[in-house]
Amino acid sequence: EVQLQASGGGLVQAGGSLRLSCAASGFTFDDYAIGWFRQAPGKEREGVSCISSSDGSTYYADSVKGRFTISSDNAKNTVYLQMNSLKPEDTAVYYCAADRSPITTAQAMVVPGSYGMDYWGKGTQVTVSS
Question: Is the separation of the CB atoms in 34 and 58 below 8 Å?
Answer without folding.
Answer: no
